Amino acid sequence: METKTLNEFIQYLPVPALIAKYCPDDSINHPILFVNRRFQQEIGYEQTEIPDKETWWQLAYPDIAYRKVVKNQWELEEELAGRERRNFTKLDVLITNKMGEEKRYRVLCSPCPGLPEYIQVLFINIEQTV
Questions:
Q1: How many domains in the chain?
Q2: Helix/strand/coil for 55
Q3: Would residue 54 be called left, alpha or beta, if left means φ above 0 and alpha means ψ between -120 and 50 degrees?
Q4: Were 1 and a residue from 75, 114, 116, 122 both cysteine, which residue would form a disulfide, CB within 3.0 to 4.6 Å?
Q5: pLDDT of residue 129
Q6: Residue 37 and residue 11 in contact, taking contact as beta carbons nearer than 8 Å
Q7: Entry pTM
Q8: Tens of pLDDT along 42-69?
Q9: Are 35 and 45 in contact (CB under 8 A)?
Q10: Domain for residue 130, yes or no?
């Protein structure tokens, strides 16, 4: 699947989503290449406001102590996913949107199908689910 087709697919997902790219230097500060319309509507940020993972984490988790907790939990979840041979990582977190509101999301992260150098991240608002 080519990148343009992937962007079009993600653009119309009914949940907030973004695409990031693995860095060739194995850095964990992945550049964010794309956010879909739902991400902009619900979470509030445009791609230009969150150029990389580090910027996103500072905005989404402005409390330094909570950000550290999320980072530690994410690392544990990545280890578990590896042991279970899952190709995705998931974690329920409180995300602060651009309006300063905290909302609970299930964050799902995995390589993009057919494009393993790209990462897809989906945000499912679990406050709205039944």
A1: 1
A2: helix
A3: alpha
A4: 114
A5: 52
A6: yes
A7: 0.88
A8: 999 999 999 999 999 999 999 999 999 9
A9: yes
A10: no
